[in-house]
UniProtKB/TrEMBL annotation:
Native species: Tardiphaga robiniae
InterPro entries: AI-2E-like
UniProt keywords, alphabetically: Membrane, Transmembrane, Transmembrane helix
Name of the molecule in the record: AI-2E family transporter
Topology with respect to the bilayer: Multi-pass membrane protein
Transmembrane region(s): 31-50, 56-73, 85-108, 165-186, 231-256, 262-280, 287-309, 321-346
Sequence similarity: Belongs to the autoinducer-2 exporter (AI-2E) (TC 2.A.86) family.
Length: 371
């Protein structure tokens, strides 16, 4: 009588063996469906980010402003042992006073200096165009395209472009107000907004995400403060040097030379062009002196002062930095160029920590320097 039991066991084993391919196929289908959903989610996120890129860049600019206010409040805490809210209020009041006084001072001087600067550059570009035409080189094309004075229209022509001017001014003002108010809100309680982002990941990864976000914030604060110090030093040095040489609109030339440091490598090169054009009417020797002094100041700042100021910030590879500037500039225009460096700085931290270390398993602290 044991034979039927044996037959039933064999039959049950055969049934289970027949069910295994079906279960494996179902698991494969679930994995395939899950992978497709992940790819679809990633693609949808990239598409939405692309469509909202302008707004995202404005939000990041607000984060930059909040990082600046937070960095100033932290620095003030070394000298004034009071609460963070009071230190932040002092920083906001001081920066507001500086902006207001600078605006009042600039309203009376900068527009006239800008018009003089543009007229000089326009005239020198005309001379350069005539000299190049002797060699068969048309620098600006048949329409010229060198009239910088058109950037400052006369009052009787201004109302002809009123609609365009009002639209551009309104958009700029609205974006500026959004950046200011968002920056103030972010700076009031940055940890609360950080913890809100941390809640989006699973509980086991929240401590790691919090650590990475703190490191990104530290890198952003260090880089931003260093850049601001470099801009102020470069502006002051170039302004003083060109003023002593006797160049017109020395302040604007120094200001554009300082602001050009916000876009490394390419910015200082482009900033030398207005300096050379303004010096051309004063003779070849003045051009040599002006360009030479500018090059010396820029070299000292770039190779000595800059590395000393940025020694606590992340060292960004030059080639990847230029690639980031070119790509973001081609995708998002002037705002992409202006924000390329800080975006690359924090993006690099995220890639190194969350992908290279966590996903690939490389230990950048113990192993070779992969950065």
């Amino acid at each position: 009588m044991p034979e039927p039991r044996v037959d039933q066991a064999i039959l049950a084993k055969d049934v289970r063996s027949q069910d295994l391919p079906t279960a494996g196929a179902n698991a494969g289908r679930r994995l395939t469906l899950g992978g497709a959903l992940v790819i679809l989610g990633v693609a949808s996120g990239i598409f939405l980010a692309w469509r909202a890129s302008s707004s995202l860049l404005i939000i990041f600019a607000a984060i930059l402003l909040a990082s600046l206010l937070d960095a100033c409040a932290r620095s003030l805490g070394r000298y004034i042992p009071i609460g963070r809210a009071w230190r932040l209020a002092i920083v906001i009041v001081i920066l507001t006073a500086v902006v207001v006084l600078g605006t009042i001072w600039g309203i009376g001087k900068i527009p006239e200096q800008a018009r003089i600067l543009m007229r000089v550059m326009d005239a020198q570009l005309d001379v350069l165009q005539q000299r190049l035409l002797a060699f068969g080189v048309d620098l600006f094309g048949p329409d010229g395209g060198r009239d910088f004075s058109r950037w400052f229209p006369d009052h009787d022509k201004l109302f002809g472009h009123a609609q365009s001017a009002v639209g551009t001014a309104s958009s700029f003002l609205a974006n500026t107000l959004v950046i200011i108010f968002l920056g103030l809100l972010f700076s009031l309680d940055p940890q609360a907004y950080r913890d809100g982002v941390v809640l989006l990941v699973k509980p086991s990864s929240r401590e790691r995400m919090r650590s990475v976000l703190d490191e990104m914030g530290a890198v952003l604060r260090s880089w931003l403060m260093g850049q601001l110090i470099r801009i102020v030093l470069m502006t002051a040095c170039v302004w003083l040097a060109l003023y002593l040489l006797g160049l017109p609109s020395a302040f604007l030339l120094g200001l554009q030379a300082g602001l050009s440091n916000f876009v490394p490598y390419l910015g200082p090169i482009l900033a030398s062009i207005p300096v050379g054009l303004v010096a051309m009417p004063l003779g070849p020797s003045m051009v040599i002196w002006a360009i030479g002094i500018y090059t010396v100041i820029q070299s000292i700042e770039g190779y000595v002062i800059g590395p000393l100021i940025q020694r606590r910030a992340v060292e960004l590879p030059p080639a990847w930095t230029l690639i980031a500037i070119v790509l973001l500039g081609s995708l998002f225009g002037v705002l992409g160029i202006a924000l390329a460096m800080p975006l690359f700085a924090i993006g690099r931290v995220a890639v190194l920590r969350l992908y290279v270390e966590d996903c690939l398993g490389d230990n950048l602290n113990d192993g070779p320097d992969l950065r």
